[in-house]
Amino acid sequence: MKRLTTLLASTAVAAAALSGTAAAQNDMIIGLITKTDTNPFFVKMKEGAAEKAEEMGVELRTFAGKYDGDNEAQVEAIESLIAAGAAGILITPSDPAGLADTVKAARDAGLLVIALDTPFDPIDAADATFATDNFKAGELIGQWAAATLEDPENAKIATLDLSEAQVTVDVLRNQGFLQGFGIDVKDVNRMYDEDDPRIVGGDVTQGSPDGGRTAMENLLQLDSGINLIHTINEPAAAGAYEALKAFGLEEQVTIVSVDGGCPGVQDVKGGVIGATSMQFPLKMASMGVEAIVEYAKNGTRPETTEGLDFFNTGVTLVTDSPVEGIESITSDEALEQCWG
Amino acid sequence: MSVDTSVEPILSGRGLTKRYGRVTAMDACDFDLYPGEILAVIGDNGAGKSTLIKALSGAVRPDEGEIRLDGKPMSYANPLEAREHGIETVYQTLALSPALSIVDNMFLGREIRAEGFAGKYLRKLDKAAMRRFAREKLSELGLMTIQNIDQAVETLSGGQRQGVAVARACAFGSKVVILDEPTAALGVKESRRVLDLILDVKKRGLPIVLISHNMPHVFEVADRIHVHRLGKRKAVVDPKKHTMSDAVAMMTGAMEAPPEERTDN
Amino acid sequence: MSDANSDDYEKAIHSGGDVASFEERHRAPLERLHNFLHSYPTAAPLMVLAASLVVFGAIADNFFTPFNFSLIIQQVTVIGVLGIAQTLIILTAGIDLSVAAIMVLSSVVMGRLGVTMGLPTGLAILAGFAVGTACGALNGFLVTRFKLPPFIVTLGTWSVFFALNLWYSDAQTVRSQDIDATAPLLKFFGERVGIMGAQFTYGSFLMLGLFGVFWYVLNWTAWGRAVYAIGDDKEAAELAGIRTDRILLSVYAVGGFVCAVAAWIAIGRLGSISPQSFYEGNLDAITAVVIGGTSLFGGRGAIFGTLIGAITVGVFRSGLKLAGVEVLWQEFTVGVLIIVAVAMDQWIRKVSS
C-alpha cells in the first residue's frame, strides 16, 4: 500500500514536471541501481556517480538490492525511476537475463539504460554497457603468471572461483586467466571443462575470505604441490593466503587476482598477491552519468569500444614484479587509484 | 461429618471478588478448607470454579476479599509465591515437560544443588540426592512401579504421568494440594489408581482441594463438597447425606441445599 | 499406543516389575531402534558420521589422514561455536537467524577498536564480547517482552546487525598485516600446534572446550534443565515454577556472548576482519544443529550432536572434494542431509504421541 502511494505520488510529481515549461537541467533525474550497497566496489561507483551528478547539476537517485541476486529490489527501483520520469538509468543487473523485460519497459518509456560492470543477457537489452573487460582482466594476470613462473609447463594451477552458478563475470575471469596462461579452455563460456593436466582443480569461495580459506585448504589436500592460484577477487585471495601460511606453503605459491580494491592493492604491496587486474568503478559510473546527460541534451547515444560489444572502461595490471611486454603499474601507483 | 470444622481452616477465603470488565467471575465468594480433609469443588461450566482455584493457587489476584493461610492473611503475586507458602497445584495439563525425566520433572524449578565448591560456584546439581528423594516420594505413594526414574515422562502412560505430578505436589506441598480434574483424561483403570493415590495423600495428613466434574469420583473420595454457582459458594454439602443427582441439581440451580448447608446468605 | 501403555501400566503395577524392561520384551526390532534413538539423540548423527567416514575413506585419496581430520576440525571451528549458540536457542524452541551477523559485528568492533583506533587489544576484545552479548540480549528482550516470534525478531535483527556492521566498518576489511602489527592477540586462536601429523589451532581447542562447558551447563545445572523444559513446553515450565522469560532472555544473551567468542576465533581463522565474511554462517550453524539431531521444535537434542553435525558437514565437503566430485554436488548432498535429519527427528519424536 505504502509503495503504491509513493508510486502515485512520484508519478504525480513527474507528470507535473513534464507538463511544466522548459524543464530546467537541474530537474533532470538519473538513477543508479547497484547489486548491493555494501560491496566497496559499488560504494565507489555511487561515489563516482554522485560527484559527476553534482558537477553537472543533475539529481542522482540511488537504489540497491539487499544482497547480490536481489532481482526484486532492482525491478522495483526501475519502476519507480520510470514513474519519476528519470532521463536514464545506470544499473549493475543482479540477474542479467531476468531483468530484460523491466529494462525494455524503461527504454520504451524513453529512458536511456546503461549497464555498468555486468552486461545484460543479451547485451543489447541495454542501450549501452560500460564495463571492465573481465576476460581481458583474467588474461592479463594469466599472461603475467606465465611470464613469471619459472616452469610454466609444469605449473600446478588451482582456481578459486565465485560460485557453482557459473556467473558471467566469474567465467570470464577464470577463462581469461587460463587462456592468458596458455591453456586450452575448450568452451569459453564454461568453467571446469578443461582437461589440461596442469589444472589441479577449482573450488568456489563466494568471493569472501572464509570461502577462500576453506576452498584453498581443500584444494591443497587434493595436491599440496599447487604453485599458481587464480582468485575471483582479493578477499578470496586473502583467505587463500591464510590457508597457505597454515600449510607453510606461502613461499612456493603465486596468487593472482582481479579487482584493484585498496586492501587488495595493499596485499600486492605486501607480497601476498603477485598481480591483480585493477578495474575502475568510479570511472564507469561517472562516464555513465555523462552519457545520460549527453543523450538527454542532444540524443547522442554512447558508442561501444571497437571490437567489443560494450564500452571498455579499462583494466590495468598491478604488480611489483613487472614483466616485459605486459604493461603494468606498481602498487604504490595503484594505491592512488584504488577503490574500497 | 468426619471433618472437624470447629478448628481454624487451613486455607480460607472471604468475599473474594474478581471482575473481568463487566463480567464478574467471582462474586464475594467464600471458601474453607480444613486440616486433613478432601474438599471437592463442583460447579457447572462457567460457574467460576477455575477463577476461584486460580485465586487460591496464586495465578489470579482477586480484586477484593482476603485469603488466609493458617489464619494469616496472604497475598501472592504469582503461583511461585503460593508454592513457597506450601500450596501446590496439579494443573489439568499437569505442567510436566514430556522430554525430561521423571526426576528432572519432580525438581523442575527447585533443583537441589551439590554441596561445596561445585554447587556454590559451578552451580552443579546433586543428581544423586534428587534421585534418592524422588524415589522415596514415589514409593511413599506406592508409585515405585516406575523403577527407572530417569526415563522420560512422555514414555509414561496418562495415569503414571498424573502420578508423577501428584507425587511432585505432595513432595513439596507442605500445607495444601490442589488437584484440577485429575481423572478427566484417564480411562477407568487409571482413574481408579489415581483415586487411590488421592486417598493415600490424605492418609498422610495433607488436605486436598479436588476440582472435578466426575460425580462418582467426587462422591467416592470427598469429605465435603463445595458447590459453586454464579461466582459464589452456594453450599457445602456432606456427600453421605445427598445423592449425586442432588449435587448436580444444586450445581445447576434446580434444587436448593438444605438451610443448614447453605452458605450464600 | 496409549491403549498398549495403559495395559502395560496396570500389569506393571500388579507385577511390581520394572516398567521399562517389561515393555521392551514386546518390542519389534524397529520399535526398539526407535526407542533407542529417542533416548540417545546423538546416536543417529553419530551413525551418519561414522558411515560417511567409511565411505569417503574408501573412495577418496588422502582422506583418512590425521592431517585431513584436523583440517576438517579447523574448518568447522567457527561454525561449530556458532552452532553452540544456535543449539541453546533452538533447544528453547526458538531460532536465531542473526548469529553470524552478531559474530561479524563483534569481530568488526574488535578490529576497529584494536587495530584502527589502537586501543589495548584486551579492551577491544572485551568490547566485542559486550557488543555480542548486547545483541543477543536485544533479541531476547524482543522475544520475551513483546512476545514476538524468534524467527521474525532475528530475521529483523539479522539485517539490523548486518547494516550496523557495514556502517561501523565502512565496508572496509581490516588486513592481516595490520592486525599483526598492532593487535596480534586478536589472532591468538589461529595459532597452531602440531600433534602427530595433525594440526590443531587454539581455536579448535577452545571450541571443544566450549562444547564441554555447555554440555555441563545443560546437563548439570538448573539453568540447563530449564532451557530444555522451556523448549519442551513453555507453559508447563512456567507452571512448574520456572521464570521462563528470565531464562529465555539469558539464553539469547549467552548465545550472543558465544557468537562474540566465535568472532575472536574467526579473526584467527581468516587472518583479516571482513565485514562481508560468513554471510551464510547463520544457515550453516542451523544446518549443524539440525544434522546433529536437535529438534527444531525445541526441548530435544544434545549439544554434542551439534559438534557431530558440524563435523559431518565438513567431512562431506572435504570427502566430496577429494573424491573429485563437482562443487554443486556438495551443496546438493548437504541439502539432502538436512532433509533426512529433519525427517528422522519427526519419526523419532513420534514416540511421545
Automatic annotation (TrEMBL), chain A:
InterPro entries: Peripla_BP_I, SBP_2_dom. CDD domains: PBP1_ABC_sugar_binding-like. The keyword Signal applies. Residues 1-24 form the signal peptide. Gene3D superfamilies: 3.40.50.2300. It is found in: Cell envelope. One of its GO terms (molecular function) is carbohydrate binding. One of its GO terms (cellular component) is cell envelope. Residues 30-298 form the Periplasmic binding protein domain. Keywords: Signal. Belongs to the bacterial solute-binding protein 2 family. This is Substrate-binding domain-containing protein.
UniProtKB/TrEMBL annotation, chain C:
InterPro entries: ABC_transp_permease. It is a multi-pass membrane protein. The keyword Cell membrane applies. GO terms for molecular function: transmembrane transporter activity. GO terms for cellular component: plasma membrane. Pfam families: BPD_transp_2 (PF02653). The keyword Membrane applies. Keywords: Cell membrane, Membrane, Transmembrane, Transmembrane helix. It is found in: Cell membrane. Its main location: membrane. It comes from the Bacteria. PANTHER family: ABC TRANSPORTER PERMEASE PROTEIN YPHD-RELATED-RELATED (PTHR32196), RIBOSE IMPORT PERMEASE PROTEIN RBSC (PTHR32196:SF72). This is ABC transporter permease. The chain crosses the membrane at residues 43-64, 71-91, 122-142, 148-168, 200-218, 247-267, 288-316, 328-348. It comes from Halovulum marinum. CDD domains: TM_PBP1_transp_AraH_like.
